[in-house]
Write a structure and sequence with these properties.
It is a single chain. By secondary structure, the protein is an alpha/beta fold. The protein has one domain: Alpha-Beta Complex (Spore Coat Polysaccharide Biosynthesis Protein SpsA, Chain A). The protein has helices at about 20-25, 45-55, 70-80, 100-105, 125-140, 155-160, 170-180, 195-200, 205-220, 225-230, and strands at about 5-10, 30-40, 60, 85, 90-95, 110-120, 150-155, 185-195. An eight-stranded mixed β-sheet has the order 3-2-1-4-7-6-8-5, sandwiched between helices. Helix 1 (about 20-25) links the parallel strand 1 and strand 2. The chain is globular, with a radius of gyration of 17 Å. The N and C termini lie far apart (about 40 Å). About 40% of the residues are buried.
């Protein structure tokens, strides 16, 4: 196996419906290490990942991870052998030349963290508007979210002391801290993320609760309280 340049870290919990298609997109990338960090799935997620790992030796399953997305991603980062870390959600499709894009961004040492633009897998006009707002926020405020794919060198990840192990908004918190230490870059290529979060309870309600959670973060409301508010939407 070629020594990996990039370690892809994916926290999962009961993702059997999407994890197979997610892994298929990386079959031709030998210099990529894929670390699936399972937080205790009760469905067939682990079995699907194991099947893929038997065919492709760059895929690794960490099944004894601590529970919680931030903890899972930190756990995966500790196991990563690549010099660059890419954190993705399990329902995300990356552009074909994502490895080259990431390498080009991080070649500039002033760029501490990078992310992609957002596309949502639904043709709804309302979701197109949400895409535009998300990409405007990302470019003008240097504030991408985790569903856009976050990447940085392992050295800079350690400089930031990784993800704060919050029950919610761990991605938002990491980017906020990164902005204080270096440049956050949004590339012009997009990742495609599933619309399932918006479809489950409705676009308006999902968007409203998300904004309430962000406001609560700035008001320094307890992350555990914010987690309970977020959980109510499901």
């Amino acid at each position: 196996m070629v020594s990996p340049i990039i370690s892809l870290i994916v926290p999962v919990l009961n993702e059997e419906t999407v994890i197979g298609d997610f892994l298929k997109q990386f079959q031709n990338h030998e210099n990529l290490e894929i670390i699936i960090v399972d937080g205790g799935s009760q469905d067939n997620t682990q079995e699907i990942v194991k099947d893929f790992s038997q065919k492709y030796n760059q895929i690794h399953l960490l099944s004894a991870a601590p529970v919680g997305r931030a903890k899972q991603m930190n756990y995966g980062a500790m196991s990563a052998s690549g010099k660059i870390l890419l954190f993705l959600h399990a329902d995300t499709i990356v552009p074909q030349n994502f490895l080259e894009i990431i390498d080009n961004v991080l070649t500039d040492k002033n760029n501490l963290l990078g992310a992609f633009q957002l596309r949502i897998s639904d043709s709804s006009r309302t979701l197109r508007l949400i895409e535009k707002i998300a990409n405007w926020r990302s470019h003008w405020l240097s504030l991408p979210y985790g569903d856009q794919g976050l990447f940085l060198t392992k050295a800079n990840f350690n400089l930031l002391n990784g993800f704060n192990e919050l029950p919610i908004l761990e991605d938002f918190d990491l980017v906020t801290r990164a902005r204080k230490k270096g440049k956050v870059v949004i590339v012009k290529k997009s990742v495609l993320t599933s619309a399932r979060r918006w479809q489950k309870i409705g676009i308006f309600k999902t968007t409203l609760i998300n904004q309430i959670i962000i406001l609560g973060y700035y008001l320094k409301i307890s992350p555990h309280t914010l987690e309970r508010i977020y959980a109510r939407k499901y």
